Structures are given as structure tokens and as C-alpha cells.
Amino acid sequence: MTPLADPALGSAAGWPLVLYFHHVNPQVRHYTSLDPDDFRRGLETVLRRVGPALDPAGVVPGFRPPDEPSVLFTFDDGYRDTLTLAAPVLAEFDVRVLLFCTTQRLDAASAMTPRQRAALPPRESYLDWAEAGHLAAAGHVLSAHTRTHPKLDRLDPAGAAREVHGALRDVAERTGRPVHSFAYPYGLVPEVNPVPSTVLGFGTVKSAPAPWTDRPLEIRRTYLPVDETDRWPAMAADWREQWYGSRCSSPPATGQRTCADVSTAWPSAPTGCPPD
User: What is the mean pLDDT of residues 220-230?
Assistant: First the structure.
């Protein structure tokens, strides 16, 4: 694993931690998919040790981060278990998410019969648009993740633009609202980027931590490693410290906290140490 791909590397100092998931489902094995119990444990750990959840409705270009560590939760693709298994846990914590939809897959689900959909394995089972609307009515925000989930860097510029702009239009038409965010499939950002400046672009751990004002189309997201639940509390505490751009310690003799700069990756770090 390269240092950039390490999930322990969070966001730029002063900017929200952004986490991404694909499934909450005990039948799925994937590096960003948790069973419901671990998902609940992850939410509790992150909210307690990093900071409060952001309302995704306020995550728009020109976004001003809060003056404290905070977390934005996101889901990719639009799988059906986001509604059936993730949403009840999110409701327990009063958390809303950005849901990046692969729009033609939601179209296909909407055209299926209930019997056809019931026969699908979780990795092929997507929300239909009515179910996505139920999530939106609960405060979750529908956003775009292309129409067909291609690797955008392998398409010609015109093809990549059709995927991006088409998905943005699809979601806007379904919700009746402007779409302010987009997530790149596989975290791959094409050299000629078709994402418009009216939209925030979200990557994965392939993107470097940087202030959103510097790289609004390549915002870093990270994840909670599956099967490493014992590691999560320390990761969450470290993500919080990264918000301050410093490590803090307590010398044994005095108990006085001191800060030492740890990285130039967070050039505009807030001053001071995290509170005890």
C-alpha cells in the first residue's frame, strides 16, 4: 500500500473527514462494505472520536467548513441495502449521507418486477428511483456517480463528458433540484476532467489530502478497514488530530500538552492542539 492509499491518512487540516462505503450487508465481502453491527460500531466510533456528522445538503461549491472536526458520510453506486440495512442504522445516529447514484443501474432496477429484483445477489441489487426517493425524503442527498460506472480515464473526453453530465442531469430531473456533487468510479480522475465547476468532485484514497478550495474536483475520501475494528478508535483519534495539522503529547513531568508539526500536507492548519 502506498502512503497515499493508506486509509489512516484523512483530510487536509481544517476540512471535514469524508468516509465512503458501498454496502452494509453481511453477505458482501468488499473493502468498503460492513455488516450492520460493524457499521453501527464504526458510526459510533467516528462520531465520538472525530466529530459530528455534516448535513450533506450544505455540501455545495463555496462550502465553508465548521470550526471543529466533522465528518461527511458518503455511499457509492446506489445499492439497495443502503435503504434496507444502512438507513436504519443511520437513523439511530440521526446521520444523513451523500448517495452517489449510478443512474442507469437505478433505471434498470425501476424496470424490473419485484420477483426479478428478489432473485438478485446484493452486488447486483440496486435501488429503484422510488426507493432512492424514500432516502431523499429522509434527508439523504442523491448525487451522481456516472450513468454506467466506467473507468473515466479510459474513455475519450466526449465519452467521459456524456457519462458525467448525463448522470448529473438524470439525478437533477428525478429530484427536481440542482446536483452539487459527483464521485468518480474507482476514484479515477480523467486527465481532461468533465466535472463542471458548479459541482464538487469526490475521489477516494487515490486523491491527496488538500483543502477543498485548492482541489474542489479531487476531494479525498477514506474508509474504515473491514476486519480491523480494533484499529478504528486509534484511526478516528488520529483523523481528528489531522484536522489540527499536528500531533500533541503530554510530557510525563508536567502534563503540559505540546504540539509538533507533522506534515506539510496540511499547510493551512488551525492553530492549537486538539482539546483533551
Answer: 97
